[in-house]
Amino acid sequence: MKRTAPAPLSVWRTLNLDDFLIGTPHYPEHVDESYWQRDAERMAAAGFNVVRLGEFAWHIMEPREGVFDFSFFDRAIEVLGSQGIKTIFCTPTATPPRWLTATYPEVLRVDENGRVATHGSRQHADTNSPVYRMHSRRITEALANHYRDNPHIIGWQTDNELNTTSSTSYSEATERAFRRYLTDRYEAIDALNFAWGGNFWATAYDNFDQVTVPRQHNPGFPSPGHVQDYHRFLAHATAAFQHDQVEILRRANPDWFIFHNLGRLEDIDFRGQFGQDLDFLGFDIYPMLYDEMRRTGGHAATQALHLDICRAYGGNFIVPEQASGFGAQPGFSTMTPEPGEMRRMALSSVARGADGLMFFRWRPAHYGAEIYWMGIIDHDDVPRRRYEEAAAFARDIARIKKDLLGTTVRMDVAIAGADFDNQEAYKTYPMGMPSPLENAVHLHRYCHSKGIACGFIHPEDDLSRIKLLYVPHWVMWKPEWNANIEAFVRNGGTLVIGAMTGTRDEHNHIPTVRAPGRGLSELCGVRVEEFGRVAEPGADGLFGLNGTEFGLHNPARRLAASSAARGYTFVLGNREHEAAHLYELLEVDADVEVLGRWSSRFASGRAAITSRRVGEGSAIYMGTYLTDALVESLAEQVFARAGIAPLVADLPANVEVTVREAADRKLLFVLNTDEGPVDLSSLPSGVDLLSGKELDGRLTLGHHGCAVIRFH
């Protein structure tokens, strides 16, 4: 496994490894050592080349403070290596041993109500604690020095799903670190008071030592600037905690690759130091964990959404944990993949940017908080259909990896994403309206169902490879993005700006210039004169969606409930639409074309959706939020003109298509996400790399059937 230096972060970045990582997280500490040889032989027979070890085993590596014993994992790694299985080792800092939390109780996390975490679960240590950071460096240094020359270890994972159990902290150590962060950021207390609006509600501070960590409803709402900076600090602190480990590992062996496996995307700025420190990112994918999001089009659409969001942070990635079967913790359980679906879900991950994948997990635990989280091998040590599907997927990868590696995922339609400040700015002042992501789901779902190449992209990235960019009401629009955006439009791109974009500055202040602000106002030829709240179509009062975002509960959405909801309508093309969530009245320049006009109440006749020709492209502004119906109308009005078409014509329902491409080749992934057979007749001619068959444009796929067609 050869590693090269990683390229800068971009959605178009490919992995810097020369082989596809395929394998499983493995926990040799959960079974008797007599199982190990048989496990390694079965992994090799399945076509695996790697395992991930050690993320929850600090107590084994250091049973007493300062007493290190790596012999257990030395033996496990040697057994795996004898069968050609390489190891990715993990720093074990998600689960400190009991001697550490008992001797140094100040390392324990404190929640918003002042409750100190107890031992007995995971992520109970506060990564802001200087004592815990010292112990984190100590165990990492010991591991790195011990394994620096071990030929079976090829890379490292930092910690495990940082901030997944909890991302916030309210300990004394956190407050001290927060004050240091603010001192470095603002230097003078007057600058902080200005940024946080200290003259509102007399919230000004005399010095940095008086600043506290913000708490919700304590008793009222804190300043949005205060909340934003707290979450900026948490992201900064998370990156610093990881950076300690990365520095040690790089120093020990620069040939190792280093990544982190992300679970919940909470309080981590992937485009900042956190992502820049790593060779690539890893994303743990559990499509059936988010059953409440089936409204977004089913498990396949949810998986596609997660993967496309994640790819925007740093390009191609690996999947350190891919669901293999039924999963459960005491408080929930997931659906179970049907026969063939586990393999299909894995190929869906590859289709959307995975250049490595590990099925979670090798075998299920017989004790602990995940006893019903099934693995590839069953509790009785018998390999059944999940093992066979994992082996089938490994054979798939062997057939396609030569053509796959070095390709990126095609996008014709892109949604602005991967910006930490905009993610957090929404949360500081949601007003019961949908987040940028919830709004963008309408467009992503439509493109997924129609087979249109769609994903997420940061405005700093190369936009020349996309045809349309949608900005889903990013309230913090940064002036440094304007030049790239304008060049994209002038060179033929279509820009669509959503309502409320550019309504706040970096401090969450309302600017004195009208939205969407300098740069975008001139580009679109519009300025927002007035705005107001409207009900979601079909809602009983001012409710938003059902309170989920990326599978997570969002109670702030309920705050807008009202029995006095008012509906507004507008006409786009020859269809009348109900507005969603918000209306804006627009003042438009003379060279602006009005695509849609308000058709009810006092707004009747005013511009609702506009388009301005700029160079070879168009800048469109929407004075409302997306709905499914509005996306369909926009597609009818805009997509053909922008050169956007489905990857496959006459695409049957429940068939997912994606293209990965390089300068000399294109791979079309065709995946049946349903149990019924489907016939396709409009495919490009080429070779199905999975079956080796030449195709003339026609193909029949059985239940959860898959094809990867190389074409030009």
TrEMBL record:
The keyword Metal-binding applies. CDD domains: A4_beta-galactosidase_middle_domain. GO terms for cellular component: beta-galactosidase complex. It comes from the Bacteria. Residues 27-399 form the Glycoside hydrolase family 42 N-terminal domain. Its EC number is 3.2.1.23. It is an enzyme of class 3 (hydrolase). Pfam families: Glyco_hydro_42, Glyco_hydro_42C, Glyco_hydro_42M. One of its GO terms (molecular function) is metal ion binding. Keywords: Glycosidase, Hydrolase, Metal-binding, Plasmid, Zinc. Residues 655-710 form the Beta-galactosidase C-terminal domain. InterPro entries: Beta_galactosidase_C (IPR013739), Beta_galactosidase_Trimer (IPR013738), Class_I_gatase-like (IPR029062), GH (IPR017853), Glyco_hydro_42 (IPR003476), Glyco_hydro_42_N (IPR013529), Glyco_hydro_b (IPR013780). It catalyses: Hydrolysis of terminal non-reducing beta-D-galactose residues in beta-D-galactosides. Residues 439-644 form the Beta-galactosidase trimerisation domain. Belongs to the glycosyl hydrolase 42 family. This is Beta-galactosidase. The lineage of its organism: Bacteria, Pseudomonadati, Pseudomonadota, Alphaproteobacteria, Hyphomicrobiales.
